[in-house]
Amino acid sequence: MTSEEKIKLSTAAYTEVGKVRKANEDSYFVAADDNLIIVCDGMGGQVAGGLASKIAVETIQSVYRNTTQAELNRLISEVDSDLSEPALRLLAGVRIANRRLYQIAEKYPRLRGMGTTVVALTFDDSFATMVHVGDSRIFRLSSGEVCQLTLDHSWLNELIEDNEINDEQIETFSQKNVITRALGTSPAVKIDIHREKYKKDDIYILCTDGMHNSVGPKDIVKLYRKNDGHIDAFTRALVDKALQRDGTDNITVAVTQIRQEGKQTSELGLSTTVPEEGEKTIIKEDRFIQAHYLDKNIKHSTNPVVGKMNQTRWMTFAIALITGLFCFFLGMMAKRSDAGLEARGTDLRTKPVQNSFRNHVTPTVPVSRKQPAAQAIHRSKLSSDAVLAFVFFNSAEDYAQAMLEKRASVLDRLNPYSRDGQSIINGSFSIFLIDSTNNVIRKTTGLRLPNRVED
């Protein structure tokens, strides 16, 4: 990356394994001298999740800091030219990280399901630029007010956006942790970018859901004031508060405060979503990976991990449907490969990262103490010849005559009408197909019930 004026920042970061989990699947990177902060929350089991977040953090920071201008131009040739160079570098880094993780998971079946969220933030002399995928968040604390700058890529938010859930249902919604976007789970990735002008003393907080699920905006303000604005103590307090209130998940928080005024400019900020890259761009990304990340290095980093994973021959599907239509597959589900199960072990709290450190990636600690496995780490896929169908039958007799159980896999069924023949579903609705790792693998929207035909 070309040398730029360094922004004066005060930065700290902490991570905590929590009260329940025995290993930390989060990773973070802080390089205040390069104006770059990254936080990732891995998923897919304690080994695969930790590996995914670590690879993502290392890849994003490397692409952002070391990619030449010519390489960058090739990687983002199809992207809107109005995006700034910091935004383009973050975008390229996230895309390359996604491709690396996807390739590793495809090559090693026991690592399928490996993925990670990401939030990343950088500064130039006028703007704060951030990218995100998943449900990790970035907040801004400015003049005593907290603003959430990222929107979770979750099933719940999709329902809210489609006006398919009310306030009461939101409070009791049981699948709030289901995310619809992550790195490593698809060949290409859709990325949200936000760019805004900053002011002196603005504070940016990057965190995983282990913090934001239990620490709200009012808590953030109170803890900042209680710690007299000391960034290191404030960051530690955020982690401790999340641990005190919940602690069932890993907790990672990185905080940075601007120590200078932004340069005045007529340029405007933006918020946009960059769509998934096309086939031509993916080919360029794969060539970049071959040139910079040798396959022998991938083998070295993944083979030991595979050897430590428990194995299972079965993948249990947890299907959650918001409607009562009949669902079944015509065709074959993708091959159910061996799936590792989560091993439990011990991880230690990391030390804070401040300006004196160039960078830090939280370690993925091998574990040895095992307890009963809790979660399969295989992400299910629909094969190219599979068909997911939503079928309406006018009567139970019609359903019986169709003999669907002999022709396909029936995932769910429910009578969508009351006894008096009235529909219990009004207007249009969506159906989500979710696998046992809580990932949305198919979504269909705008569905309506047909009129019931009376005999």
Q: What descriptors fit this protein?
A:
single chain; 455 residues; alpha+beta; Phosphatase 2c, domain 1; 2 domains; seven-stranded antiparallel β-sheet; five-stranded antiparallel β-sheet; globular
Plain-language structure description:
The chain is of the alpha+beta class. It contains 12 helices and 19 strands.
In total, the number of domains comes to 2
Structural class: alpha+beta
* Number of distinct helices: 12
Using the coordinates shown, work out and report the CATH topology of the largest domain. Phosphatase 2c, domain 1
Quick gist of this model?
The protein has 455 residues and is an alpha+beta fold.
Q: What secondary-structure arrangement, pairings included, does this model have?
A:
Elements: E1 9-16, E2 26-31, E3 36-43, H1 46-66, H2 69-75, H3 85-107, E4 115-116, E5 118-123, E6 127-133, E7 137-142, E8 145-148, H4 155-161, H5 167-172, E9 191-197, E10 203-207, H6 209-212, H7 217-226, H8 231-245, E11 251-258, E12 270-274, H9 279-292, H10 295-307, E13 310-312, E14 326-330, E15 339-341, E16 387-391, H11 396-402, H12 404-407, E17 409-412, E18 429-434, E19 440-447
Antiparallel strand pairs: 1-11, 2-3, 3-4, 3-5, 5-6, 6-9, 7-8, 7-10, 9-12, 10-11, 13-15, 14-16, 14-17, 18-19
